[in-house]
Amino acid sequence: MDEYERETQTLRELLEVMHEHDLDRIKVKLGDAVYEVVRREGQSIATLPVMAPARAPGDASAPAPVAAANVKKVVAPLTGVFYCAPSPDAEPYVSVGDRVEKGSVVCVLEAMKLFNEIQSEYAGTVVRIVPTNGELVSQGDDLLWIEP
User: Fold this and answer.
1) Closest CA to 37 of 18, 52, 55
2) What would the pLDDT profile of 86-99 be if each residue is shown by its tens digit?
3) Which of 28, 142, 145, 11 is nearest to 77 (CA)?
């Protein structure tokens, strides 16, 4: 399978995930390639593959946020779609600035049509929610940053 066929297959699979989960947007990084698929209101699904070159250490062109030394990270225990609330019309579990306790549900990850409640392993204040609602996250990705 050549590169074009692999890329085409990847895009087809992303479209299937979007349709299956009724997503408006999905963004996935595979190696150096970043694929972002967005459904515009009143339009069919459009694909926007973007090649993201690997950044050299010290490259300041697009610095990623860096957590303070005391920040604790809640990470995804599995790959799935991130949701900040139990349902589309419900309030989010947490927002930036909220205080959470150890064991508090902070979000859900949908994987294989199962909704998995994610609990904080830390008590503290939420300082950052990393993924956007409806974004596909991989196991080990940061979900929230919490300051004790």
Assistant:
1) 18
2) 988 999 999 999 99
3) 142
Asked, for residue 64, whether it belongs to a domain, the answer is no
Beta bridge partners of 128: 145
Helix (H/G/I), strand (E/B), else coil: 20:
helix
Tens-place pLDDT, residues 25-40: 777 777 777 777 776 5
What's the pLDDT band for 44 if we cut at 50, 70, 90? very low
**Number of domains comprising the chain:** 2
**Separation of first and last alpha carbons in the chain:** 49
For the chain, what's the residue count? Answer: 148
Same domain, yes or no: 135 and 105:
yes
Residue partners of 51: CB distance under 8 A and separation at least 6:
32, 33, 34
- Give me the amino acid identity at 141: D
Give pLDDT tens digits for 58-75.
444 445 677 677 899 999
Same domain as 126, residue 91: yes
Determine, yes or no, domain membership for 61.
no
φ/ψ (deg, to 5) at 123: -100, 145
Q: What single DSSP character describes residue 63?
A: P
DSSP state of 3: H
Q: Read off the pTM.
A: 0.58
